[in-house]
Amino acid sequence: MPPPATVSAPEAAVLDLFARVLLAVVFFAAVVGKARSRQGFAEFRDSVAAIGPRWLPAGPAAVAVVAGEAAAVVLLAVPGTRLAGYALAAVLLIVFCAGIARAVLARQSVRCQCFGAGGGLLGPQHLVRNGLLVAVAVVGALAGGAPTSAPAMLVALVTGAFLGLLTTRWEDVAFLLVPAGRNR
Fold this sequence. Notes:
The chain is mostly helical.
């Protein structure tokens, strides 16, 4: 049996930067989408009320989510706090998965307000997206390493930003990739 593949320190640094940028872009878009208008935040608060446990006050929970997302962006941006940023991002995403799963299993018709108003109905595609983002957080946290060449870091930065923006349009991507009969 061949030995397990290892990642060199420069490759790990590129992977870490890629993951931090991707997650920071996603969480930054989420904060902006929810906080840019009173109506956007109100719709998000209403979605929290619909998918959260009945005992959870939706207003304070919605504020805590937006604050947590903003904190994740800051923690991911500062190299010395990257592990805390990854941990916070993973915890938020797991909590989101629990709420989404609760809504899906209860067959609730709740719109995704992850990036503000206009999202589609919560469904399995949102669980897949958030599960993949949890995996990115775990891989990024395990990476790290010494800084590498500027071109490699630029590629990580641009790729992470592009995929982060693409992730914010996940419903559109899922619509394009899933056969037409299964989109309903």
